[in-house]
Amino acid sequence: MDVEFGSFETELNRGFLQVLALVALERKMYGYGMIKLFEQTGYAVEENTLYPLLRRLEKNGWIKSEWDVGEDRPKKYYIITDMGLSVRARALAIWDGQSEILNKMKEANRHA
Amino acid sequence: MHENLEKYLKEISHYLAVKQGAGEILAEIRSHILEKAERESGGFTADSLDKTIAGYGRPRDVAAKYMDGDEIISPTFRKYLFRYTAMLFAIHFVLTVLAVSFRTSIIAIPFFFIPKMSAFWAVLYLFMALVYDFGVVALILYLVTQRKGDVRLPWFGVRLARRGESGLKKPRPAVLAMLIVIFGILLYVFVRYHTLFFYTVNGSRPETLLNPAASVFFSILLLAALACDIIGYWIRFLFNTAWVTLVQNTIALLILWIIWNSPIKPEYKTVPGIDLSVVGGGFILFLIVVTVIRLLRSLVRVAREMSLP
Fold first, then answer.
1. Partners of A75 in the beta sheet?
2. Which among B12, B109, B138, B227 is least surrounded, fewest beta carbons within 10 Å?
3. What are B165-186's pLDDT values in tens digits?
4. A30 falls in which pLDDT band (50, 70, 90)?
């Protein structure tokens, strides 16, 4: 049961995390900083999940990255692109729509 | 400097089969682990690094997440993999049987080379051939998968059968009865005349075509082949599966192979106007070809049964 739910949760989180990353990258951030920010909002994400996802978003052209070697340790910073902004707007519209459908469905169940 | 960290990254790199950017991925992981160890585990001690590394995940799992959706062979080709392998092996099998029977090598470029060999080596060779066939098909499917385009591979349509069913016709009692009657008649003839190979001229006393030793030997083998057919047909009343026909035809082919390669040299008697060595050889060859075709059909049916969900 737990294993099955874990897999289900992973599927649910996959889309959510992409949207969340696109929202968070409104400003320049690096991986570790994003994880900490998500934790503060109550959302825990594994680092070995976030980095491959960022790579896929970058491959799609939705975010871009650059290495900052000025600090004591090199860090790879990401930020959303124009294409990413457009994708994010569409994704959020879908998200809102789905949310509305779920609410309507729950409401209908209450009155059934 | 950080020996365990470098070892960890090196192991990830072994699994990380990305086309480009592998170095950058490893650099990012290194940067992350160092920062996390420093901030959350109290600096760059061996313990803090080991703890952070352990939390990051197994190298193979880490690498796998970067290759999500990048399969070596598309899962949609799974049925193709097994069916193509079965078909290729069926051809390999028949060619091997022919090569052993005729004591020759067979070359069919680019996929087949069957060397001249004994039956014992052929059994070992077939195991190797199966692995080879699997590899050839896997290679082709790998190339097709990597091409990413809409490649449509031919699907050799066969009538579908459920697992446990063979697609074979239902055995009929009348056929079994007929086979038993034929066997009974031949057995009677053999017991009475000690041969199944004879001729008569104008209804005179039957004369054996072969010398006594060869007569008995070949007659027994022929009866054994027929008995094998009868037993196989009878078993199909209980389990109507292609496996039965596969075993049945394999044994029949083995018997024919023994006849073909028999060390007993029959002394053909002379029948005016007929070259018995050609007729006899031709007859055995005909039986071999028919049995090979039946065997091939059995293999296809077995493969079909195995490949169905």
1. A68
2. B109
3. 556 778 888 898 899 889 888 8
4. very high
- Give the 3-state secondary structure of residue B92: helix
Inspect the interface and report whether the beta carbons of A48 and B65 lie closer than 8 Å.
Answer: yes
Helix (H) or strand (E) holding A30: strand A29-30
What pTM does this model have? 0.58
Q: B307: which residues sit within 8 A by CB, 6+ positions away?
A: B79, B82, B83, B86
Q: Could you tell me the strand order of the sheet in which A29-30 lies? A: A29-30, A75-80, A63-68
Amino acid occupying residue A54: L
For residues B230 and B275, is the Cβ–Cβ distance under 8 A? Answer: no
- State the Cα–Cα distance between residues B206 and B203, nearest whole angstrom: 8
Distance from CA of A30 to the nearest CA of B (A): 9
Residues of A in contact with B12 (CB under 8 A): none
Which tokens sit at B132? Answer: 């080879």
Q: Do residue A52 and residue B68 have CB atoms under 8 angstroms apart? A: yes
A-chain residues within 8 Å CB-CB of B24? 76
* Nearest chain A Cα distance for residue B35, angstroms: 8
User: Residue B198: helix, strand or coil by DSSP?
Assistant: strand
Residue B257, amino acid = W
Q: Residue B2 has what pLDDT?
A: 82
Cα A47 from Cα A49, distance rounded (Å): 5
| pLDDT mean over B97-118 | 80
Chain A hits for B31, Cβ within 8 Å? 73-76
Give me the DSSP letters along B166-232: -SPPPP-HHHHHHHHHHHHHHHHHHHHHS-S-EE-STT-S-EESS-HHHHHHHHHHHHHHHHHHHHH
Is B120 within 8 Å of B100 (Cβ atoms)? no
Residue B288: half-sphere exposure toward Cβ, Cα within 13 Å:
22
Complex ipTM tops 0.85: yes
Judged by a CB distance cut-off of 8 A, whether residue A51 touches chain B is yes
At position B104, the amino acid (one-letter code) is T
* pLDDT value for B160: 44
